[in-house]
Design brief:
Strand order of the largest sheet of chain A: 1-2
Number of domains of chain A: 3
Radius of gyration of chain A: 31 Å
Oligomer: heterotrimer
Helix content of chain B: over 70%
Largest interface: A-C, 46 and 61 residues
Order of helices and strands of chain B: HHHHHHHHHHHHHHH
Order of helices and strands of chain A: HHHHHHEEHHHHHHHHHH
Shape of chain B: flat
Number of helices of chain A: 16
Largest sheet of chain A: 2 strands, antiparallel
Bound molecules: adenosine-5'-triphosphate, magnesium ion
Strand content of chain A: under 5%
Chains: A mainly alpha (about 375), B mainly alpha (about 325), C alpha/beta (about 325)
Radius of gyration of chain B: 24 Å
Distance between the termini of chain B: 40 Å
Low-confidence stretches of chain B: none
Helix content of chain A: 55-70%
CATH topology of the largest domain in chain A: MetI-like fold
Number of strands of chain B: 0
CATH class of the largest domain in chain B: Mainly Alpha
Number of helices of chain B: 15
Shape of chain A: elongated
Low-confidence stretches of chain A: 1-51, 62-66
Number of domains of chain B: 2
CATH topology of the largest domain in chain B: MetI-like fold
Chain lengths: ~375, ~325, ~325
Amino acid sequence: MQIDDKSRETTDTPKRMEMFSSTGLGVPPMPPTAANIKDLGPASDSPTRTSIQAELDARAEGISDEKPISPFRASLRRFARDRRAVISLIIVVFIFVASIIGPFIYEHIGPTIKGGFSSNIVEGPQVYHDPIHQELLRSDQPPTLAYPLGTDRVGRDILARLLAGVNVSVQVAFLVLLFDIGLGLIVGTLAGYYGGLIDTFLARFTDLIFAFPALLFASVAAATLGTEFTDRLGPSGRLILVSLALGITIWPQMARYVRGQTLQLKEQQFIEASRTVGTSDRGIITRHIVPNLFSIVLTAATLDIVGIIIGEATISLLGLGVQPPGSSLGLMISEAAPMIPVAFHEILFPVLTLAIIVLCLSFVGDGIGDAFNPRRKD
Amino acid sequence: MNVFAILAVVVLLAFIAYATARIGPRFMVRRLAGLVFVLLGVSFIIFILGFFAPGDAVFTQLGQHYTPQAAAALRHAYGLDLPWYTQYLNYLNRLIHFDLGTSFTNDTRTVWQILQLYVPASVQLGISGTVLALIVGVPLGILAAVRANSRVDASLQAVGLVFYALPSFVIIPLFFVAMVSLHQRGIPTLATSGWGTIDSEIAPIAIFGLGIFAYYLRLTRASMLEVLGQDYVRTARAKGVRERVVVWRHAFRNAVIPLLTAVGPALAFAVVGVFIVEDFFNIPGIGEETINAISQRDFPIVQGVTILLASAVVFMNLVTDVAYGLADPRIKTQ
Amino acid sequence: MAQRLLDVQNLRTHFFTRSGVVKAVEDVSFYLDEGETLGIVGESGSGKSVTSLSVMRLIVPPGKIVGGKLLFQDEDILDMDEDDLYNLRGGKIAMIFQDPMTSLNPVYTVGFQITEAIRAHLKLDKSAAEKRTVEMMDRVRIPEARGRMNDYPHQFSGGMRQRVMIAMALSCNPQLLIADEPTTALDVTIQAQVLELMKGLAQEFRTATMLITHDLGVVAGTCQRVAVMYAGRIVEEAPTKTIFANPAHPYTQAMLTAVPRPDAERGARLETIGGQPPNLVNLPPGCSFAPRCRKAQPRCLRERPLLETVGPEQKAACFYPY
Ligand SMILES: Nc1ncnc2c1ncn2[C@@H]1O[C@H](COP(=O)(O)OP(=O)(O)OP(=O)(O)O)[C@@H](O)[C@H]1O
Ligand SMILES: [Mg+2]
């Protein structure tokens, strides 16, 4: 039952407003307000007026040394002050860069060793610092000079495999992010700006994806289409497939963030204004909306990277992603798991690497969220 | 049709009837339409993935007895020679009758039987872990919010972040390593493999629960913080009720509402955890079975598991929506 | 002469935020006699709400009362233990907030929320407390009170919710009612009704009222005395008549010119004064109003004027009053 209070209350309105404004208390004749004073220039009645005017103006401006910065730079500055986030970012960037250029340096570092089945072949680091090179006689070794992090159960260099594994994570993260941001931006802005059919589609698709255990979908896709992709696209086909599968499960979230932000932006005055001036929808979207989505996309993307890296590791761990003898953090963990009782360093290094990457990225994500979220709490 | 299926339908109908009576038919009709749509979508995607996948289950199944004739006969028997849309319709038709088909790799067993065999262990793992996580996580989340910015809060947040961010396959190996080194020193340790005895269930349940615990800890804290800043909490304090009453009666009662909406996503989150934990601890659950089925292309099983999981998620969402409607008086009259 | 009810002396309340210490209330002193109505006016952010919350000891971190005395019936609220505070809040001092849309708990019926307040202070059993709830809802003229007790806040309009708040506040016969902009969020037509109602009931219950508002019109019609706040301080304090007839502080003067003409649509907002109120983190020395003041002199930038008697019953913090 809904009682309409409003209509009831308005029935006996006293003429209150008039009563208030004509207080009858004899409001004295008023001097011009402070706002008008400035237009009048330096007041003639006071010789000191000009000398203090500058100071007064400066104070009236408020805290003058912080005002002129653009919101983006202000956010960057806030981020730079977040020590945990900055250190984490440095660590992550170092690990990622190392996985890309590291192998080229690493293959020149290390003593020559005697390898092969009867330890009679002289090998340089170019040979045994290859992630798939096996030295069966040197399996399960603890860290040595030649193998800084030891060897796995078929005598492969763990550091080389780690670098290759992280490289896979980086590649997948990059591919998925392209897909994620691309699709998320397009569908999200369109859904937010126009609503209608595309909005309904996004809502339905999101429901679908959220009900579908993402891991199961990616695993099934990797299992059923894996060979097809490898046949067509070569060895990286499987990575592309895994990326695609992860991308499909991850983009609706991004699209929803973008949609929400677009909805808010759409209501804002500067967009109203440019519409009345006659800017086309396309102009409004590309010039006014998309640039303002930057912080939300950046925040979401950082956190998505964590999900992507874990997702790839999970799929490979279950044997459905990167195939042996290739390397991936997930694959390394599953291969080393049975060896824990005899040589636990084999699992320790990939696990710790993954832990560091994930934690650091989470800190970076938190930091970005804090720094770029305009409604941040003090 | 088996007893299990009939029971499920009866419970579902009873629940829907109750919820409709409490919250109103429009709300329920919209929810149910969404539910049917999602289930159709999921079944379609999973069906198509299986249909267009290269490789052939028939080939795998015949093994050394493979002849083209035998393969054709078997395909015909499974209805695999029909066009895809006919196969999908047949599949849907069987689904409505709670017939999930027969395993490709072991044709003496129906998918239902396999599910019945393996699901209980997984459900037990999932539910005990989740309950444990809720019992510990929610009160600690409240504590963290009430003591916001204190040292207690900072440590709880750190714990929450670590266990929320780290996947279980990072934590389990570290746990195993710890167990091995304890064992080598002659200290008694928990079992790290198997299922069915208390001793073997403690570790997997605790580790599975950790991730969920951290999730609820963070969620509860955020939700409580939000509510504690609301005007009506200030009103409650201003009228002189005790702080304990303010926190539980006025704040928590409202903070529960967003917690409820998170149950659905938490379930999806939990599925991954169950798979991984079963894999590492050698638990004979549906996760292990599904991983095997995926690699052997035993599609009826994969389809069955997917439909089951999607139904569970969708149903959980329905339950939480209804719970939401019951918890928040504003929903009813809108 | 009436008994002194509340005597606030040199109250200082600060917020310790990441970007610095916000001195929201700085050296504020005022008093209220029994049954008296005091108006507190000032533009947004001047510290009115923080002052009133301080009186109730409802300041939560990062805020903290860092100094002063809050004498209520000669007992310092700052020295009270928890039990005394629970008795004080709602029992001796009650409060009504600005936004009736968010001030009531959405998941409980209004009847429950009023009853809860009653049972916290009056030793009544459930049915007696409910009886009083209906009585109070009748007193604030909520139609069909008995039936509407079981409705939830969202089923009431803004005006009706504020009536519920008034009923809740007065239900335990408090000696002091603090109303923090009780009508700002309401429709103009309803504002007057709610204000009249509150005024009438406060008189009936012999409750002293501290009325916080932006609206000088409201002050004129309701209050015996007025304190004007600017940037965390009281800059002028005088009987209402004096303030309107002969304002001493340039800020008060500017504020009075900013009272809207009769054809203005909404209540008297003070934003029409040029310039911005200062940032409360790093207040420069001197008078905080100087940058916006039409009469500012070099001295105003160096020294801070204190609140001093400038006329009969009139105090102002200005070196060059009138
Ligand atoms: N929780 C808080 N954290 C930091 N600063 C705060 C907090 N609450 C209030 N302040 C600061 O205290 C100052 C005074 O605020 P207050 O709410 O008392 O103003 P007000 O006079 O009631 O304004 P309004 O008319 O808008 O209600 C403001 O500058 C505000 O920024
Ligand atoms: Mg206020």
